[in-house]
Amino acid sequence: MEKIVFLPLDERPCNYLYPEYIGKISSQNVVFVPKNLLGNFKQPADIEGIWEWTRKEAAGASILIVSMDLFLYGGIVPSRLHHFTEEECKERINRLKLLKKENPGLQIYAFQLITRAPARDGSGEEPDYYEDYGYRIFRYGVLRDKENLRLISEEERAEKARLEEEIPQDVLGDFLNRRSTNYNCNKHSIDLLAEGVLDFLIIPLDDCREHGYAPAERRMLAAYAKSRELFSKVYFYPGADEVGCTLLARAVNRLRQEPLSVYVDYSSLRGQYQIPSYEDRSIGETVQYQLLAAGCQIAETSAEAEAVLAVNPPTPFSLRLEKELVTDEIFLESERNLHALTARLRKYLKRGQRCGVADCAIPNMADRALMQFLYEQDLLDKVDAYAGWNTSSNTLGTVIAHLTACCSLKKGEESLASREFLFFRYLEDWGYMGEVRRAVTERLKEIDPAIHSLNLGDKEPEVREIVKEKLKEFQRHYFPGEAWDFDLHMPWNRMFEIEIEIMH
User: Fold this and answer.
1) Closest among 365, 357, 364, 362 to 390, alpha carbons compared
2) What does the alpha-carbon distance between residue 187 and residue 160 come to, in Å, rounded to a whole number?
3) Inter-residue contact 62 to 106 (CB < 8 Å)
4) Going edge to edge, which strands form the sheet with 385-387?
């Protein structure tokens, strides 16, 4: 069996555990960098140790999937904090040339993020000064981009001048210098693609908007790719934590020697033209990028497809729901026809087609209306894949990878790992993010007034037990026949996500 070597973006479950499931479901021989070499939140990974491990494991491997942010900076958060020079980074980038020289038959699939600039104050995953100047740094990037595009108004020009006065020069200088280093590293990776060292390259936009640092850099990097005659070869689209799964799906499609044919169906006709939160384009465009990046073919009709990707896209109402209308009530909105979607899902399943549901309506949680439909229509255990976590792109990449892994199985063959991962997604994305997290977060001050959702302090074990009991209640209600037992952890000691361990 051919070997795939995998270097994740960081140590979190979405980057390490989810790809492990994709590997198991597809029965591929995927070798993961040992966890003891990875970092922990703001602590970078052991960059030299990872290089030595990679060089050893690449011998005899068919495909290397590499996060350049791990390879160069030690992970996604360290990529926003490091003080490496461009020369230090370029020296590390050139190690891939040596790897290719030592293993000429090795295919290297790489991804390297365009650094984000969140639209808020808060230093949780950013430099310390982002606590006080984060939104202003973000806003300065938007105005600088609009000025360069000659879209800035006189009022905005005055705002930009005011921000230049308000943000300390050493703060803005540190932020822009690091961006410059990371941007030039993106260019060096494009050079590796031009030289045939890399076989495939995705440069995703992490947490982006229509205007700002990231879209400006995307345009410049695309122009640079054009100068190397790679304008159509580099993929630029929104994403981050799902890209490891996407590239693993691409490897699976390559090894199965026939790209998976996927038809896309939407629960909302209007929704496919909606720009999701934290992204820079309509979801309909991103879906196509995600499928092609995963090595799939986009089917023109459902009848010709091997699998169906059912997308529950955002709408103006669902994006309001995220920010303004979060209550215990479940809303059935007019721009989403869930009756029609579930009827079509039954038709696809009856044909014997694999079906995955990408629940992108509300960031970082399941659409509870959709889940109630799937539950009442007895479809939860009939579909093959589901996700509804964090950004729209995070969800899409996870579902597409899971679908691809399922379709690599022989006709009629079932995978215990696939059923386990499906339950995992329901438990985390629907159970925790959609039903439990807000209720427990509201109780934190009762547990200890000093803790908050982004730092549980020493109360993490107590909070974890409360979450676990509530998820057990969720399981008893919606999955009474599911025998899975589970334990869980709180990565990075916060409420944002959980790490579920299915017990066997």
Assistant:
1) 364
2) 28
3) yes
4) 297-298, 261-266, 307-312, 354-359, 385-387
Beta strands (DSSP E) in 33-137 are 63-67, 107-111
Residue 319 is predicted with a pLDDT of 84
Alpha-carbon distance values, 3 to 58, 184, 456 (Å): 9, 31, 40
- Phi, psi at 18, each rounded to 5°: -60, -50
Quote the radius of gyration of the chain (alpha carbons, Å). Answer: 22
Residues 494 and 481: their CA atoms lie apart, in Å, by 31
Closest CA to 420 of 395, 402, 437, 407: 402
Q: What is the predicted pLDDT for the residue at 324?
A: 63
Chain segment 220-265, per-residue pLDDT in tens? 999 999 999 999 999 999 999 999 999 999 999 999 888 999 999 9
pLDDT at residue 482, as a whole number: 81
How many H-runs (helices) and E-runs (strands) does the chain carry? 19, 13
Rounded distance, CA 200 to CA 340, Å?
Answer: 38
Segment 15-69, tens digit of pLDDT: 999 999 999 999 999 999 999 999 999 999 999 999 999 999 999 999 999 999 9
SS3 495: coil
Which of 181, 177, 285, 173 is CA-nearest to residue 236? 285
CA nearest neighbour of 494 among 436, 465, 452: 452
Count of all residues that appear for the chain in the document: 504
Q: What's the pLDDT band for 436 if we cut at 50, 70, 90?
A: very high
Asked whether the CA dihedral 53, 55, 61, 67 is positive or negative, the reply is positive
The 3-state secondary structure of 350-409 reads HHCCEEEEEECCCCCCCCHHHHHHHHHCCCCCCCCEEECCCCHHHHHHHHHHHHHHHHCC
Q: Sort strands 107-111 and 63-67 into parallel, antiparallel or unpaired.
A: parallel
Handedness of CA 20, 24, 27, 32 (dihedral sign): positive
CA distance 491 to 496: 9
Residue 278 and residue 393: Cα distance in Å, rounded? 10
* 67/74 Cα distance (integer angstroms): 10
CB 190 within 8 A of CB 228: yes
d(CA 31, CA 477): 37
Q: Do 370 and 263 form a contact (C-beta atoms < 8 A)?
A: no
Q: Residues 70, 117, 179, 398: is their CA dihedral positive or negative?
A: positive
pLDDT at 484 over 90: no
Instruction: Decide: 212 and 116 in contact? Cβ < 8 Å.
Output: no
What is d(CA 295, CA 250) in angstroms, rounded to the nearest whole number?
5
For residue 388, give the nearest of 422, 342, 338, 353 by alpha carbon: 422
Phi, psi of 338 (to 5 degrees): -75, -25
